[in-house]
What we know:
By secondary structure, the protein is mainly beta. The protein has one domain: Outer membrane phospholipase (ompla), Chain C (Beta Barrel), CATH 2.40.230. The protein has three helices and 19 strands. The chain has helices at 2-12, 161-165, 290-293; strands at 30-34, 40-43, 47-59, 62-75, 83-98, 102-113, 123-133, 135-137, 140-154, 168-179, 181-193, 199-212, 221-229, 241-249, 253-258, 264-269, 272-275, 278-281, 294-295. A twelve-stranded antiparallel β-barrel has the order 2-3-4-5-6-7-9-10-11-12-13-14. A two-stranded antiparallel sheet has the order 17-18. It is globular and about 50 Å long.
Amino acid sequence: xxxxxxxxxxxxxxxxxxxxxxxxxxxxxxxxxxxxxxxxxxxxxxxxxxxxxxxxxxxxxxxxxxxxxxxxxxxxxxxxxxxxxxxxxxxxxxxxxxxxxxxxxxxxxxxxxxxxxxxxxxxxxxxxxxxxxxxxxxxxxxxxxxxxxxxxxxxxxxxxxxxxxxxxxxxxxxxxxxxxxxxxxxxxxxxxxxxxxxxxxxxxxxxxxxxxxxxxxxxxxxxxxxxxxxxxxxxxxxxxxxxxxxxxxxxxxxxxxxxxxxxxxxxxxxxxxxxxxxxxxxxxxxxxxxxxxxxxxxxxx
Length: 301
């Protein structure tokens, strides 16, 4: 069963977007669907990680999204290779985008739980405010960000969750394009623990390296991730872990799919967003060449 799931995941990698939005499509029946958080498979010892994520724009012209992320910790240290923990993470948020690369995410509601009962039950409910800003200089992109969380409901078995994960996270993303290889990404995230985020002996630090070696649609990014601290999964939020993993992560693509037929209407490649029936560059805010950045109807079928 797990082998089938892995094969399905690897088939899914090339065709789903990472953290891009679809704000307007020519087809009124289009599903404005894109990836939300990174989609990846990572191998490590004793455990691997598998994450699937997507979001859909609810109304055309209104950047209100419903998102869903599922994180699975896969125990390779046991002969039967069971999943140690599965985290379910639905959310509702509104995205504000301003000129010069400013993005504000207002998280109306976010829920995270592991679907278990009794002492192994974990559940966290928050509202969030996120901000990021893109700085572009030639082939280099720098994007710092921050996320502030307000906890308003916790499971009885993880009442002290905020003591370990705190109320805010800081992210730093560096991207280099078309130097030696098509894309290199280096990401760093830090989330202190403590009631007000003042304990750096709690929380976690996570570093990521993603390298894209080829421009074809088939090959995903080579992905390396290092996690150090608390809260890698809900079941072990109060246990310290440190692990290096390597695997695959999806490329960037926005897909516009019709609700009625399921056919792909089009897709924007690279750092692009679907705007006004064309692809626009997210960093330069200009329309892109259709031949280079837009795959027309039927091109992906």
